[in-house]
Amino acid sequence: MRIEGFLQGSASRRPDKVALVTAGERLNYGDLDTLSDRLAGALSSRGVERGDRIVLFMENCREAVVGIFAALKAGAVLCPVNASTKPDKLAYLLNHCRATALLTHGRLLPAAKAALAQAPSVALTVATGRAGDAAEALSFDAALAASAPRPNRAGIDLDLAMLIYTSGSTGRPKGVMMTHQNVAAAAASITSYLENTADDVILSALPISFDYGLYQVLMAAKVGATLVLEKSFAYPQLIFETMAAERVTGFPIVPMMAAMMLQQKELRRGAFPHLRYITSTAAALPPAHIARLQELFPQVKLYSMYGLAECKRCTFMPPDELRRRPSSVGIPIPNTEAFVIDANGERAAPGVVGELVVRGAHVMKGYWEDPEATSCVLRPGPHPWEKLLHTGDLFRADEDGYLYFVGRRDDIIKSRGEKVSPKEVENVLYALVGVREAAVVGVPDPILGMAIKAILVVAPDAGLEPEDVIRHCKQHLEDFMVPKFLEFRDELPKTESGKISRRRLVTALAEAAL
Amino acid sequence: MLSPDGEFMMRSETEREIRKFIEDSFVFREDRGGLSAEESLLDAGLIDSTGILELVAFLESAFGIAIADAEIVPDNLDSIQAITCYVQRKLATETRAA
Fold first, then answer.
1. Which of A54, A140, A76, A68 is nearest to A105 (CA)?
2. In the prediction, which pLDDT does B30 show?
3. Which of A58, A82, A90, A237 to mutate to test the interface with B (most CBs of B within 10 A)?
4. Domain A4-8+26-181 -> CATH class
């Protein structure tokens, strides 16, 4: 089934059921279906064709959800991009996928325009609010009010549904290609182990530019549940009030949110009687936090999970087993396989650390227009028609087959549950006049998981202050990539070949912390 | 009791300190051209969850107040003006209680 079918199915079965709650406003399935039809018609009539890429540069809001389904209905490929992305990187992404259209907010138009000036493929911009000069952007309100002819054939489920850009060690993000079949397989597997039904009320404060957040929208539509979509977890108190008022049954989080929740002095045991499950992924959930969450919410099923953009989700821990194995990320999700291979590429024995490989219908088709990077991670599998995904993550299995994340093979840092490429941050630092050498590493942080630290050697006459460096980073990087710590040094440790050694820096920092 | 002039001066000073922290700590893209006292920090995309934590830590330390979980809401924190009023209320309450 194509993914917009999730919405169409739920709308035809229960058009009056509340699909979405945003900023206190309710939208039912029938209306969500109608609005996304109208926007799809507006996109198609303005030149969006089957297979075209549409970049969604938006925060969590009603129009973003409409935009997701509209893009799919128009037969386009959805490319969600973090709303804090700065113009240079947005231009890079628009050009990389040769996007035809951009969906964004009025507030983000200045940044979008700066990017669009360098991205000639984009023929159409749709913006919320006062879109300013009508020539520069079509307003969402106008597109949603008018009834445009429905686009014809959107495609089949073998076609691409989305490109999820993911950071890599090279410093340039790669576009994970997911077909409708891939997404449907992942959504079916996940909703089955979470036991989602139409009675669920899911509260998500995760950005829709993150596959974890995007799938909350898709999976809610699949089962006909209600999604309460929040912009951020900036005000936990308000989120808790909403959880109680809306009788939320499902709460997907990342470990940073758990850390913030547990810092609340006034959180009472059994505070959310309707809450059925909490899921956590994107970074390791500390066993101490697992224990405290279980104590605070004894009736709630806590799912500790692991995944990567290249297959959406890989493993989940059955809640009943969590107490016995709090540091495990569990077993492969239903209808998939995931196992550890040793240095010879053979299945590893229990306890042996090796790379985790994955097979299943959820595995990506490859990286957009990057056959070389694709061939590094998608390699022949057991069947001649099959590719096995090499995750690049080090794992071990125990005697009972439960999997444990050991570490990454590359230098990617997980901060706030987001991937940060040290090279990408270093490239931005080197663009600042006066920076001679730069190394970016992760340092443990009780809230963020890992915090980003930049260690710099600057030219003495450059007059660079820490504020200058941070301001420069904020102008070019997403929020979660901006270093929290900065250190100026006279020199950085090098490898034998003269390259800066991040490993030696990390080791030295860890030793100093002891 | 402070004279009306004294209160006005205290408020201005409080607002100045708060503005300085906000401007120093959070994004300042050159094209923004200064933040108005009433502008919503969240809507402007200037502050996120870690930003709120930093703001709360700063207010507690700079003004010697204790901020309860339930007080971490946009009504109290989402603009320079809201923060200033909130801090003033807290200081008045804590002075009376002392």
1. A140
2. 52
3. A237
4. alpha beta
For chain B, the domains span 4-25+48-97
Task: Give residue B97's pLDDT.
Answer: 57
CATH superfamily of A233-408: ANL, N-terminal domain (3.40.50.12780)
Taking contacts as CB-CB distances below 8 angstroms, the residues of chain B near A235 are: 52, 72-74
CA-to-CA distance for A313 and A329, rounded, in angstroms? 11
The confidence score (pLDDT) of residue B31 equals 42
The CATH code that applies to domain A413-513 is 3.30.300.30
A84 contact residues in B (CB cutoff 8 A): 45
**Low-confidence stretches of chain A (pLDDT beneath 70):** 130-135, 152
| Contact status of A197 with chain B (Cβ, < 8 Å) | no
- Contact of A268 with chain B, judged by CB distance below 8 Å, is answered with no
Rounded to whole angstroms, the Cα distance separating A208 from A81 reads: 8
CA–CA separation, B67 vs B57, rounded Å? 9
In the prediction, which pLDDT does A160 show?
98
Inform me whether the C-beta atom of residue B42 falls under 8 Å from chain A C-beta atoms.
Answer: yes
Contacts of A266 in chain B (CB under 8 A): 68-70
For residue B95, the model assigns a pLDDT of 64
Beta strands (DSSP E) in A342-493 are 354-360, 366-367, 378-380, 387-397, 403-408, 413-415, 418-420, 435-445, 449-458, 485-488
How high is the pLDDT of residue B28?
58
| Residue A118, number of CB atoms within 10 A of its CB | 13
What tokens appear for A335 in the block?
């209808």
Torsion over CA: A115, A119, A120, A123 (sign): negative
| Model confidence pLDDT, tens digit, residues B45-85 | 888 888 999 999 999 999 999 999 999 999 999 999 999 99
- On whether any CB of chain B is under 8 Å from the CB of A232, the answer is yes
Instruction: Give the pLDDT confidence score for residue B33 in this predicted structure.
Output: 54
Is there a contact between A119 and A91 (Cβ–Cβ < 8 Å)?
Answer: yes
CB A364 within 8 A of CB A374: no
pLDDT score recorded for residue A510: 86
